[in-house]
Design the sequence.
């Protein structure tokens, strides 16, 4: 990864929505405890990337246990050189399976599950999960840490670990106070470069960061979960069964795009048609990093 350094810090792609201050009021690393965002944190500790003031891990309550274990590892490894905050709005699975409550997420599937009715008509659920369980809690914590009720007139840099090979996920922020920073894109650093970094430093590699029940898992990811993380796969199968009849207007819900129960799928078969993925279809650039 020696190719990436310029003036000690990485050059950063910065996307803004409006005129920003030359010097930000606050700089935050959005930490997913996966490969790319963890690399950013370690590079910040080494001061090879401009350090953040804080790191924020927005927890959906449904990450694999290996992610939580790696988050603990990062907290110990970095020794509070950059404070790491773990926040959680609520548990996405518990909310999905709860009785409906007006004005809350309880009782509603806010993830992009696949659905089909008796006539064979298909649809897909709205993808509100990233906004509801990651982005809004992140913004709330930023306001809390800055001691402000709103961020009007402020400039906050949010650093994200989107690698060069996933650059389509880089998005212009919706709020004028936000600056989205992507250190890996201008220097063409890929996810594999990040993995190589852990080998070169002899540092424990992070797991893949994504919800256990995410409908964007590929067949390869489902197969890996089934073979290597059977408890997680069992959890996903049980959730898949429980959401089946939570659809509206006669639709039945599924976690897999084939509309087949997860427990009955042969993941070694190549699925027909387009498979949604976090790398290509994540609309916010906040998951799986």
Sequence:
């Amino acid at each position: 990864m020696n190719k990436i350094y310029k003036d000690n810090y990485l050059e950063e792609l910065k996307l803004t929505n409006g005129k920003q201050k030359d010097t930000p009021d606050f700089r935050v690393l959005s930490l997913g405890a996966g490969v790319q965002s963890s690399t950013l944190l370690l590079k910040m500790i080494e001061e090879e990337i401009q350090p953040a003031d804080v790191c924020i891990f927005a927890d959906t309550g449904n990450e694999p246990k290996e992610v939580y274990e790696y988050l603990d590892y990062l907290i110990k490894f970095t020794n509070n050189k950059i404070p790491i905050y773990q926040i959680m709005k609520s548990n996405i699975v518990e909310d999905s399976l709860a009785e409906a409550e007006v004005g809350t997420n309880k009782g509603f599937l806010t993830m992009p599950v696949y659905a089909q009715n008796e006539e064979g008509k298909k649809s897909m659920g709205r993808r509100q999960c990233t906004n509801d369980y990651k982005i809004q809690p992140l913004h709330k914590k930023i306001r809390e840490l800055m001691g402000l009720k709103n961020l009007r007139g402020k400039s906050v840099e949010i650093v994200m670990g989107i690698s060069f090979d996933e650059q389509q996920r880089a998005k212009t922020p919706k709020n004028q106070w936000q600056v989205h920073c992507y250190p890996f894109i201008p220097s063409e650093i890929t996810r594999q470069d990040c993995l190589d970094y852990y080998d070169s430093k002899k540092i424990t590699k992070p797991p893949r960061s994504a919800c256990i029940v995410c409908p964007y898992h590929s067949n390869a990811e489902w197969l890996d979960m089934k073979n290597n993380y059977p408890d997680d796969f069992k959890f996903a199968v049980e959730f898949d069964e429980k959401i089946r009849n939570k659809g509206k207007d006669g639709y039945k819900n599924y976690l897999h795009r084939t509309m087949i129960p997860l427990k009955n799928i042969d993941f070694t078969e190549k699925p027909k048609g387009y498979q949604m993925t976090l790398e290509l279809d994540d609309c916010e650039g906040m998951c799986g990093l």
User: Anything to note?
Assistant: Residues 157 and 179 are 5 Å apart (CA to CA). Helices lie at 35-45, 65-78, 92-97, 129-146, 191-201, 219-228, 230-242, 278-281. DSSP finds eight helices and nine strands in the chain.
